[in-house]
Amino acid sequence: MRESDWWRSAVIYQVYIRSFADGDGDGIGDIAGLRSRLDHLADLGVDALWINPWYPSPLADAGYDVADYRAIEPRFGTLSDAEALVREAHERGMRVILDIVPNHTSSQHAWFQEALAAGPGSAARERYLFRDEPNDWKAMFGGSAWTQVPDGQWYLHLFDVEQPDLNWENPEVRADFEQTLRFWFDRGVDGFRIDVANSLIKEQGLPDVGDKGHHDPGPHPHWDRDEVHEIYQDWRRIADSYDPPKVFVAEAWVPEADRFARYLRADELHTAFNFDFLKAPWRAPALRESVERTLREHAVVGAPATWVLSNHDVARHMSRLARDPGAEIGTSLDSLLGVPADLELGLRRARAAALLILALPGGAYVYQGDELGLPEVEDLPEAVLDDPTWRRSGHTERGRDGCRVPIPWSGDSAPFGFGPGEGQPWLPQPDWFVRFTAEREDKDPDSMLNLYRTALRIRRAEPALGDGPLTWLDVSPGALGFVRDPGFALLLNIDAEPFALPEGAEVVLTSAPLTDAGELPRDTAAWIRV
């Protein structure tokens, strides 16, 4: 594989910067904290970091309300800090991917403030979507997608009221984002993750949506419009003008396989998040069906698949896997509440799931704390909840804060080494985090941290892993098995009786011990050579 194609097999670590590490003791994660923990990530063995938005922001939606795309939020550091981070990550063999939020800005962005002051019919308002009357569109965080301003006009915000949508039919908007890409590429950044990449273009006239859901198949007035691909073709030309070329990964919630694949054509984006797999229940048939569907739809355009178990928008998979897969839970914390959990079982399944995603063809994402086996914090006090979903739902949906609690690094009590001194982080850490500190797991050869380290070391050295083909094995019902050539296989027992490994197989790594008879027990994965 060419060095410039690193992204086809990369394992990328997601840094939710507010909650990763605090360098100055103010309780908020920052660039200084991240720089101080780069050796942890290098030792883990990841290929790149994806950093959630670090731009100036009121943090109404955790930084996805951007006030300036070409600067750093002062609470996180300075532009020179960011440049140093990129340089130091590169020195350790890791690339850096930033988040870009093209659908909307913060309401504090200079453009939006200018639009409010300029009034109806102004050029400043043409950068956004102002109308004299609202339509029936709903915001993703609850309530109407329209807010009225004092002069009587309404502006569109598909997410929070503080996130006005940009007008991507306006050439000035397109030119400004192209300038932003170059600004960061020129500073050594290796690529961008594109937030809600399928949402930029809205249907002319902004017609009512009726009863059509956000992610229902078929034409939609503000999701997955055909014209959005022109934007990404322009972006790809910019990325390809660098040596080595820069890369893009899309967050694109597109239910139809053929339309999803269009984002990954050779002249558009490189990869996209695989939400279908993330949502699949812990059942062998469901997982196999999702893997097959994913590989099939990516093969159409020659793009590699990606695999992810958790991120900053969903409940941590260790807690989802702790529930009965037949309980029909979703990916949100609210869907878990009230469903009995067995966290030891969840941890066992999470260990097996890690070996599964790291053996599948393509790349993989690790959300910060996955390598520690962190569960969701399900009982944060209501007074500290920060997610706009909590506010806009009338305090009926707890939202995403439970997966964003700051990482425990060391010690026996909060703040668990998150920052210097005893200052408490922006979200409180539970006492039971003591069992999941990186310091404690580093010393335990059987910890989740050391499982990830071992698996990533093997993956990097093993020519069969990463991008490439997969051949399914005939295994017991309730199990999965496949071969990656040359001669490397994964076996995963989900709910079958313990079974023997193939005769003559060499065990490379298991997520849990084999039985005394050398068989693979339930909720256990094995990497073997055959």
General description of the model:
α5 runs parallel beside α6 and α12 packs parallel to α15. β7, α6 and β8 form a beta-alpha-beta unit. With 530 residues, this protein is an alpha/beta fold. The chain has 15 helices and 18 strands. Helix content is 26%, strand content 13%. It is globular and about 75 Å long. The chain has an 8-stranded parallel beta sheet with strand order 9-8-7-3-2-1-11-10. Strands 12-13-14-18-16 form a 5-stranded antiparallel beta sheet. Strands 4-6-5 form a 3-stranded antiparallel beta sheet, with no helix packed on it.
List the helices and strands and how they pair.
Layout: E1 11-15, H1 31-36, H2 38-44, E2 48-51, H3 79-91, E3 95-100, H4 110-118, E4 130-131, E5 146-148, E6 154-156, H5 171-185, E7 191-194, H6 228-240, E8 247-250, H7 257-262, E9 271-272, H8 275-279, H9 284-299, E10 306-308, H10 317-320, H11 333-336, H12 343-359, E11 363-367, H13 388-392, H14 438-442, H15 448-461, E12 471-472, E13 479-484, E14 488-493, E15 499-500, E16 506-510, E17 519-520, E18 524-529
Parallel strand pairs: 1-2, 1-11, 2-3, 3-7, 7-8, 8-9, 10-11
Antiparallel strand pairs: 4-6, 5-6, 12-13, 13-14, 14-18, 15-17, 16-18
